[in-house]
Write a structure and sequence with these properties.
Elements: H1 22-29, H2 41-50, H3 55-64, H4 68-74, H5 79-88, H6 94-114, H7 117-125, H8 143-157
Length: about 160
Amino acid sequence: MTPSKPSAPKKPVKYPPHEAGHDLAVAQNVAPYGAGFTASAIDMVGAMRAGMPAQIVADTASRLGISQDRLYESLRLPRSTLKSRVSKGQPLAAVEQDRMYRVHRVLERAQAVLEDEAAAIAWINRENRALGGEPPLALLDTEAGYELVQDTLCRIEYGVLS
C-alpha cells in the first residue's frame, strides 16, 4: 500500500458576483417587516450577507404584538447590543438575522395553515403542549426548535394530533 498524498489546501468559496450594491439594496428593500424577508431566495441570501437592517427587530415585535424586550428574551438575543444597533441604524449580525428569518418563516407558515394572520400571531405567542409547554416563538432561537415548530405546523395542517 502506498501512503496517501496530503490533500491540497481548500480554496475559499467564491460566490457569483452581483451588481455593485445589489445585496445592500435588497437588504434595505426587505425591511420594514411588512415587506421583510419576501424577496426571492437568492436575493434573501445576498441581502442577509449584506446585513439586514436592525429596524426589522422593532417591526417584527410590533407585528407580533409584543414588546421588543419580550422578542429579545424569547429569541435569546442580546438586548443592549440590539438596541444599540437599532439606534445607530446598523445591520444585524448573522445569528440575529437568522433568528429573525425563522420568526418570519414560521409566522408565514402558521398564517397559511391557520388561514388567518391574527390566529397565526396568537399561535406563535401561546404556550403549546406539543412543544413541551413552550410558545413556538421561544423555540426559534435554535435550528432544532425551528424544525420542531415547523413539524408541529405540518401536523396541524394534516390533522395529526400533536
